[in-house]
Amino acid sequence: MTDRIKNFLASRRHEGPILVVDLDVVRENYGAFAKALPDTRVFYAVKANPQPEVLRLLADLGSCFDCASVAEIRQVLSAGATADRISFGNTIKKERDVAEAYRLGVDLFAVDCREEVEKISRAAPGARVFCRILCDGAGAEWPLSRKFGCVPEMAVDVLEHAHRLGLTAHGVSFHVGSQQRDPAMWDGALASASAIFRECAERGIHLAMVNLGGGFPTRYLKEIPGVKSYGAAIFEALRKHFGNRLPETIIEPGRGMVGNAGMIQAEVVLISKKSDAVDETRWVYLDIGKFGGLAETMDEAIRYPIRTAHDGAEKVPCVLAGPTCDSADVLYEKEPYLLPVSLEIGDLVLIEATGAYTTTYSAAGFNGFPPLETVVI
User: Fold this and answer.
1) Active-site annotation holder among 113, 135, 200, 325
2) Most buried residue among 28, 121, 129, 206 by CB atoms closer than 10 A?
3) Which family does the UniProt entry place this protein in (predicted)?
């Protein structure tokens, strides 16, 4: 917890859960990425946290932006960035959305199949496209496999199709999985990208860019390597597979940019047991759950650090759950969470590293609960 967040939370009591984001941390994270990969442009993944204050700060710092929709593109433009700093990185787009993005000045689009190329050729003639390839997400908390990307062997045909339709076949992209804790995982993906570059060159198509994707982690309960380690591993892999002819590179950090900048304050609504057995696990219900912003606890992939005022006391296994009348709204049950035995109804808890993928996953009005309140300081 930063002193700024601590002082803000101490200044007033909130009726419901609240996320507080410290812009100083975002600024530090951007600087770390820029220093670790100085020749690589940063395209912040807007979906991680699209708060206007976050976007304005990053725009002022010189960041580019990875957008998943026209709505995000408009948010970035409103924050002060120009269209040439925007990538429409979603591989699943309506043709009218491609046309609107192009009208707004965006000319860099992700594709992963011939059909998407054909949409872009009609709606955004002459635009630049990069083809996303499937990537092994081993080592990641969220592998992101199957839904996005094509096999590397298919990417060359997709890019050639784009070239023949008058688009600029600009490059290749991949994603090594969200919350990727192994810096070496970029090596295999870059080997595939290098092979695609060579085969395209043999067909007279000269690619220029490799989108290294996101995957850069934030610290939850497990230790993670520093950004510097990722930069060194990626640069080594680039030199290994591309030699001295290094392509233009971009990265799309989201979680790694804003995850550790935010903290949620929540309240304990109920503590109970399901039987009178002595060793029965306690159930701790909070006023926030999966539908209030903690959707990434699904399958217990992300285990957030939780702090309480009783942290020096004995801890016991607890199941954590949210307040809604949905049986899926259980956060940690397969591997119960250790919480102080002295924790009581009405106590406040601090859920750390919640700056990414919380407000964007918060449902509006489910069971009558309001969306997650957010304050940016």
Assistant:
1) 325
2) 129
3) Belongs to the Orn/Lys/Arg decarboxylase class-II family.
